[in-house]
Recover the amino acids of this structure.
């Protein structure tokens, strides 16, 4: 079950990562800025920064009480894969809007990539982060050893053989 604390932590971390992603995207896209990058390049770079912020916030905050089942490096790799799937959703929204529909203004790029794309990607990221990266501890599948009979230690060795 999802707890309110988990949702709050994920949302808070996500908002910080979103702010980094959006701010960096706008700065990289600024035609009068130092880079004036194309939208897909700018979105790719802003995604990488936002992903790193999101992992740190979730690992050190939201899911800190869930011990990793794998190394932190592998966990970060899985986290990046989940977020890459989310980023592909965002990039697809941006590409359809910018190149497919011809909506090439800065506002249209922001709405499609950082608005609609981010909303759809967030649902995917929450599910993946919760179920694939920071899984709850699984109960042990091995059954405990059966307890010995109360007097078993007293009668062991007293049974006669089949020959009497």
């Amino acid at each position: 079950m999802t707890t309110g604390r988990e949702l709050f932590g994920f949302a808070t971390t996500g908002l910080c990562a979103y702010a980094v992603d959006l701010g960096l995207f706008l700065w990289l896209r600024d035609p009068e800025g130092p880079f004036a990058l194309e939208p897909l390049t700018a979105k790719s770079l802003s995604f990488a920064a936002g992903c790193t912020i999101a992992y740190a916030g979730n690992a050190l905050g939201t899911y800190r009480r869930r011990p990793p089942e794998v190394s932190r490096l592998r966990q970060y790799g899985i986290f990046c894969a989940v977020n890459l799937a989310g980023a592909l959703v965002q990039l697809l929204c941006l590409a359809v809007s910018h190149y497919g529909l011809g909506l090439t203004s800065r506002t249209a790029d922001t709405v499609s990539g950082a608005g609609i794309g981010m909303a759809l990607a967030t649902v995917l990221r929450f599910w993946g982060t919760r179920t694939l990266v920071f899984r709850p501890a699984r109960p042990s599948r091995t059954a405990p050893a059966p307890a010995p009979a109360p007097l078993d230690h007293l009668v062991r060795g007293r049974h006669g053989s089949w020959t009497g």
Q: What stands out?
A: The mean pLDDT is 86. The CA atoms of residues 9 and 123 lie 15 Å apart. Helices lie at 4-29, 39-62, 72-100, 106-133, 152-155.
